[in-house]
Design goal:
InterPro entries: Homeodomain-like_sf, HTH-type_TetR-like_transc_reg, HTH_TetR. It comes from Tistrella mobilis. GO terms for molecular function: DNA-binding transcription factor activity; transcription cis-regulatory region binding. The protein is mainly alpha-helical. The chain has 4 helices and no strands. The radius of gyration is 17 Å and the shape is flat.
């Protein structure tokens, strides 16, 4: 029989994934992209280093997700700003 995740389990997994992404973003801001190491991400997120790889198969995949989520956030902010009436004749 296959294991079924409960809503609580899914919530905790999503929360941990977000913690890893947040820790990575903060480290990039603090030490630069080249200074980020899985050990540092794990320490900042309060998890074991191996846990990172349960969520992201490689550090490259983690970096890609950090940049993807940042780009989506920026895009959403741009769309929201463009939809607001402004001083440009609207």
């Amino acid at each position: 029989m296959a294991y079924r995740q409960t809503p609580e389990t899914r919530r905790r997994l999503a929360e941990r994934r977000m913690m890893i992404l947040k820790a990575t973003r903060e480290l990039i801001a603090e030490v630069g992209f080249r200074g980020v190491r899985s050990r540092l991400v794990a320490e900042k997120a309060g998890i074991s280093e191996g846990t990172i790889y349960r969520y992201f198969p490689t550090m490259t995949a983690l970096y890609a997700e950090v940049f993807r989520t940042a780009a989506l956030r920026e895009l959403a902010a741009s769309v929201e700003a463009a939809d607001r009436p402004g001083p440009h004749g609207e």
